[in-house]
Amino acid sequence: xxxxxxxxxxxxxxxxxxxxxxxxxxxxxxxxxxxxxxxxxxxxxxxxxxxxxxxxxxxxxxxxxxxxxxxxxxxxxxxxxxxxxxxxxxxxxxxxxxxxxxxxxxxxxxxxxxxxxxxxxxxxxxxxxxxxxxxxxxxxxxxxxxxxxxxxxxxxxxxxxxxxxxxxxxxxxxxxxxxxxxxxxxxxxxxxxxxxxxxxxxxxxxxxxxxxxxxxxxxxxxxxxxxxxxxxxxxxxxxxxxxxxxxxxxxxxxxxxxxxxxxxxxxxxxxxxxxxxxxxxxxxxxxxxxxxxxxxxxxxxxx
Length: 303
Ligand SMILES: [Zn+2]
Description:
The chain is of the alpha+beta class. It is built from nine helices and 17 strands. It is about 25% helix and about 30% strand. Strands 1-2-4-5-6-9-10 form a seven-stranded mixed beta sheet. Strands 11-12-13-15-16-17 form a six-stranded mixed beta sheet. The longest helix has 18 residues, at about 250-270. Zinc ion binds near residues 122, 123, 275 and 276.
């Protein structure tokens, strides 16, 4: 009840910039308006990740940003209520999604569309329970190149058997949702894009995985780019965009993607949200002379 109340209080009062930031109570859900859309960030706390996964950075720089040697780790899903649809972007690791939906007064049956940024386990974990669909009425949107990768037997066979679990999980999901699958080709970030669904554009932002996509929500002159895992370790990867992760599929490509995104959102003053971005899970990227800075969204909790 307390969480519900806090969610209601936070609701609608997040405006960028200007308002004073206020501390969040753990377990609360940040909700903002993006034009006519209401966007809630459903966040799961997972165990910290060791900084050993960071590649391409000097030890003293890693130490500066993560003195404990650990990267705090959350995984977010974005719940979007449009005037006529309820849409979920990613489904987290499967540990907190259902309780977060409940706190948001949403039943799984009410979800119309699920958009995936990519098919790593920490983003698709909420789709199945005991190998059954959790969202019986939802269409599942997967970027075509992402689908192709996880269905590729040769790619799977390159991994030792112990490491094939993500392939098995992705294929199980594809099988269970086969009658509700929608495959699409994301647009280029700087090109002219068409709506994937009304008010949602998809952009190819590859490198973390082969077919990773970001989603741009646009409504009434407001916008939000949900960049998935293009910049998962924000503290170090905004000042040092060339730091990659051990599990990026193509480090060179992910660095290029990241630079393109920073350029695009800073130039167009677009609010961003990320799947591993801690509270308040959203913010803006500003360009200072030679580097970029992340400015967290200011949340004002009205009393
Ligand atoms: Zn992830």
